[in-house]
Each structure stands twice: as structure tokens, then as C-alpha cells.
Amino acid sequence: MRIADCGLRIGHSSLVLLLALFFVTPVHAAQEQGIERKLAVLEKLPAKFSFVVLGDNRAGDPACDAIYQKLIAAALERKPDFIVNTGDQIDKPGNIEHWKRFWELSNKVAVPYLTTVGNHDAHIDVPGSEETYRSQVDLPGKELYYSFIAGNALFVVLDSYIKGEDKRITGEQYAWLEDVLEKTKQKHKFVFVHHPLYPEKGKGKHYGNSLDRYSVERDRLQALFKKQGITTIFTGHEHYYNRKTVDGLVQVITGGGGAPLYADDADGGFHHFVVMTVDGDRVRGEVVDMHGRTRDSF
Ligand SMILES: [Fe+2]
């Protein structure tokens, strides 16, 4: 067959191949790669690597989306090796259009993007929303809770919104968590869970109604974290930034990914993301706001 304009003589099969190459859109690296491949990359990270943590962006609400889009662009400038979202990735549980929007807004993310399930992602009173969550994410293990290794660190993501166990880490999940933490040989251990263990009293909207609602189970969880030497616990749900040390454990609430804020700026009520850098034995955190200002470091 002859293509007149370029005078190129090619066979039928070559033409099919050419057309296929022309029309096939390049797959989007972050979301289209299988989870096994993404995790294999993370496991081989060198001694120095970094990751970004943010949460409560609530895609689907245009006002939140504009903020999230700016934050994610600024976060990517830091060249993280991966991103972890602490939950409430979308506004309305089970809403496919909101998920579509979330992935559209995140389409510049070419590194693995790991999510935590929040009450806006899969609500116990919204039938089918958990199935929708699972269909939208590609995560290891049970997807709602899972662990993975990046460089010399263990990452554990928990589900604090299981029907009948909401705002508690109990049952099968707790037994799994104990086992994962007991068996790990990793130097650093990071935990992610949507509901904070210790929301701030007199601030935000969920004091007394997060993991602190069930103090016996919360205390047992904290004791396990203490026993196993968790490096940092990241949570969301409260739309502000807060860092505190409880019984020697660093607890970061990072719920400033786009949704309306629950506190004054001076009280942590600013939109932000957290950049964590692991360098061998050392771990450093930097909190960056919408204007690129460093608001906290630890
Ligand atoms: Fe939430």
C-alpha cells in the first residue's frame, strides 16, 4: 500500500500497527499500573525518599477542587516518590462523578497514590458506597485496610469506618494490625487512619466523636502503637492541621486538602500538605500551605 503524501511503502500489518500507535493514548502512569508493580517500585526505594500526605480534599465540590488542584500541583513540585491521602477523597459517598473528578484532578500524579477510606468515601449508611470505593481504587490486601513497604519503612493504612466497628479499630482488623506490626523488620513505621485518635478539644467538629469516642479501644490502639514504636500517625477528618506528641508518639492531623476549614488560620485552619523525607535513620516532616510557606517542621 502506498501513502501518497510521504511516498512510504508499507504492508497492511505495519499500517495497523502505525494507526494503533497513533490512536492509543498513553496510559496514565499512576493509576493505570497494577498495584503489584507500584509496590515493587516502592519497596526498592533507596535510603533517602520522600512522600506527601494530605487529606479531606472532597472532590466534587468545585470550591474544594480548586484548592486541591493547587495543592497537588505544589506537592508534585517537591517530587515525592508517592502520595498518601488520609481520606475523604470525594464529597458524596458512592458518587461516581465525584470519583471521576478526583482522578481527573489527580491526573498529573505519576507516582503511586495510596488512599485511606474516609466517611465521605464509603459511608456505612450509603448502600454500595464501599463497593464503589473498592472499584475506584487499586490497593493491596483488603483495600479498605492494608500495608506496604517503601524503602526502609512500613506503611499501614487502616479503616476506621467499618460497619459495626466505626470509630474503632477492633476485630479482624486489629488482629491483622497486631500481626503486621509484630512481624515487620522495617526501621520506620507510619500509620494512616481517617479518624484522629486525639482530635483537639474546643476546635473542629469531631472532638469526642472520632477514635476518641471509644476510649477503651482508642487507648488499646495507642498502647499497641507505643509498644511497636510507630514513627508518625497521620489522620484527617478534622479540617485543620495539628501536630502533637502523645505518650512519645507523634500524631499529625492533616485534614486541609481542600474542604472548608474548621479552625482559624492561627489554630491550624489552613489548606496544606505534608512532605515527609526519610533519610536512613532520620525522618523529617515539613508542612506547606497554599502559598508555599512552611507552617511547621518536625
Ligand atoms: Fe471525614
Describe what this molecule looks like in 3D.
It is a single chain. By secondary structure, this protein is α/β, with parallel strands linked by helices. It has one domain: Purple Acid Phosphatase, chain A, domain 2 (4-Layer Sandwich). The protein has a six-stranded mixed β-sheet with strand order 5-4-3-12-13-14, with helices on one face. The longest helix has 16 residues. The termini are far apart. The chain binds fe (ii) ion (FE2).
Summary tags:
298 residues, alpha/beta, Purple Acid Phosphatase, chain A, domain 2, six-stranded mixed beta sheet, globular, disordered N terminus, binds fe (ii) ion
Write a brief caption for the model.
This protein has 298 residues and is α/β, with parallel strands linked by helices.
Describe the SSE topology:
Elements: E1 2-3, E2 8-9, H1 12-23, H2 29-32, H3 35-43, E3 48-54, H4 62-77, E4 82-85, H5 96-105, E5 113-115, H6 129-136, E6 146-150, E7 153-157, H7 171-183, E8 188-192, H8 215-227, E9 232-235, E10 241-246, E11 249-254, E12 272-279, E13 282-289, E14 294-297
